[in-house]
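Internal QA ticket QA-208
Title: Verify multi-chain structure generation after dependency bump
Assignee: T.L.

Test input:
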Amino acid sequence: MSPLLARRTASALRYLLLSFAAFLSVFPFFWMVIGATNTTADINKGKVSLGSALWDNVNGFFTAVDVPLILWNSTKIAIFGTALTMLVSSLAGYGFEMFRSKLRERIYTVVLLTLMVPFAAIMIPLFMLMASSGLINTHIAIILPTIASAFIIFYFRQASKAFPRELHDAAKIDGLKEWQIFLFIYVPVMRSTYAAAFVIVFMMNWNNYLWPLIVLQSNETKTITLAIASLSSAYYPDYGTVMIGTILATLPTLFVFFAMQRQFVQGMLGSVK
Amino acid sequence: MEALSLRGIRKSYGSLEVIKGVDLAIEPGEFTVFVGPSGCGKSTLLRMIAGLEDISAGELTIGGARMNDVDPSRRGIAMVFQSYALYPHLTVRQNMGFALRFAGVARAEIERQVMEAARILELEPLLDRKPGQLSGGQRQRVAIGRAIVRHPKVFLFDEPLSNLDAELRVHMRFEIAKLHKKLGTTMIYVTHDQVEAMTLADKIVVMRAGIVEQAGTPRALYADPDNQFVAGFIGSPRMNFLPGEIVAGGGDSMMLGLEGVDAPLPLPELRTALAVGRRLVVGLRPEAFRADGDSVMTLAVEMVEYLGGETLVHGRATAAGDIVTAKAGGNEAWVGREQVRLGFHARDLLLFDGEGQRIR
Ligand SMILES: Nc1ncnc2c1ncn2[C@@H]1O[C@H](COP(=O)(O)OP(=O)(O)OP(=O)(O)O)[C@@H](O)[C@H]1O
Ligand SMILES: [Mg+2]
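Actual output:
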C-alpha cells in the first residue's frame, strides 16, 4: 500500500468512527423530536418519520402535568442550587489552593474520597437526616446536599493553580480583606472557569433525578424530571407526551450550553493565560 | 531616625529556617538593594517587610513604629512585583486607583492622584487600556504607577525588571533611578543582577543562605569586601581566587608566594600578623591586571574572548590550577597567544583565610 493510500484509509476510518459517535449522540435527540410528533402506537411500531400528532401530544402533556409549576420548581432548584454550589465550592477550591495549613492535604484527600462513594450508599442516611430535620418534600432538601460538591471543589482547586499568588499579595497590600480579594479579584479573573462550572452545575441540578424522586413526594414540589418519569412509568405510558416533556426538559440545558459555549471551552482550558 | 530597621529578623517554615537573624538599618531616602544567589531569602525578607509573610522572630520598624503585626496596607509600603501583578480585569486607570478606592478616597482625588502618577510615568495615553493590551515595559510602568499613587514611605521592588528583555531592562533601570531621584523616597530593591545593584544602590546588602554577608556602598563592597563570598559575588567577570602562601618575613614585611608568579611578592602592611608557611586564598580582580604592574603573572592561555572594547584572557597559572581571567584592553594582539605575562600591583591583592574571611 502506498503511503498516500495508507494515509487516506486511516483518515477515512477516523471519519467513519467519528460519524458513528456523532450518530450515537445525536440519534436520541432526533428520536425525541420525531417521537413528539407521533402517536404512541406509531412510536411503538418504530416509526422514524414526522407524524401529525404533535398538537395532541402537547395537549396531552399540558393536561397531565401542571407545566408552569414544575418548570418553576425545576428552575428554582437549578438557579439557587447552582448559585450556592458555585459560591461554596469555588470558595473551598480557592481556599485549598491559596492557604497553607498542616491538615490541608489530608482534608482535601477526604473531600476527594467522597467522590468515590456512590450516591446510593448515602441515600438512606441522607434521607433520615432530612427527615429528622423536617425537610422532606422541600426544595431545600434537594439543594442542600449538592452545595459542597467534591467535583467542583476539585475543579476550582485545579483552576486556581493558574491564579497568580502575586495578585493576591498585591491586593493585600492595596488594603483588601480576604473576602474582598476573593470577590473583587479572584471571581472576575476566573470568570471563564466560573462559566464552565456554571454549565456543568446547572445541568447536574436541572437533570437531578434520583434524590428528588425520594425526597419530593407531593405534586406541588415535583420537578420536570420527576413529572416525565411519572408519565413514563404509567402502566400504558403515552410516549408521545413523554417526548414533549423531554423536549421541554432539554431546552434550558441546550440554551445554557450554547449561550456559554465559548466561555465553557475557555474555562476548560483555564482562565488565566 | 531610620526609615526602616530590622533587628534580629528570623523566618522559619516549619523546622526550616530561611532567614537566620538579619540586622539592618535603612536611612530615609536611601536606595537599598538586596542581592544574593537564588534561594538565599531576598524575596522572603522583602515579603516580611511588606507584611505578606509573618515574622518568626525579631523586630521590624518603619518610620520608627513597630510593624511586625500591622496589616500590609497600613505599613506605608508599596510593592512592585516581578510578574507586575496587575489586575487583568481592570483598566490601567482602575489598577492605579484601586488601593485608594478601597481606602475610601473621594473619586476626584483618586482621579487627580492617578493623573499625577500617569504624568510622571508617561502613561496618560494608556489609561483606558487593560493590562493584556500593554507591552512588558508598559506593564512595569503601570505597576510602578500603582505604587506611586499610594504615596508610600518605602517602595519595595522584587526583581521588577527580570521579565524584560535586555534593552528594556537598561531603559527601565534608568527610569527607576530617575524616579528615585525625583521622589526621594526610601526604596528597597531585590535583584540578582549585579549591574542593577551597582548602578542603583546607595547601599547593597549581600545575602547568602538567610544571613547578611555584608552591607555597604557599592564602592565599599567592590573595593573592600569582608569575605570571599562578597568579593566573588560583586564584580564581573568574577574575582580570581588563587592559592598563596606566606614564604618569608613577619611583621610588616611579609612576602607572599603565589602561583604563576616567579618571585615572592611584598605584601602591603596588614593589621594581622601571618606566620611563615600560612596558606591563604588570594583574590585578584580581572580588571586589576595592568601593563604597568609591579609584579607579573604568567598564564598558559586557554581561551581569549575578544569583545571589541575589551578582551578577556582565560588561562591557568599552573596546570592543575583554576582558570584565571584577565580583562585586557580592546586589543586583538591577545588572540592566538599561548602564553601571556600580565602585570598587576601587589597592593591590589585581597587576602582571605581558609574560612573565606578577609585578612586585613
Ligand atoms: N512557603 C515556603 N515554604 C517553605 N520554604 C519556602 C517557602 N517560601 C520560600 N521558601 C524557601 O525559602 C528560601 C528563600 O526563598 P526566597 O524566595 O526568599 O529566595 P530568593 O532569594 O528570593 O530567591 P530568588 O532569587 O530565586 O528569587 C528558599 O530556600 C525557599 O525554598
Ligand atoms: Mg525571589
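Spot checks passed. The CA atoms of residues 244 and 258 of chain B lie 5 Å apart.
Status: verified.
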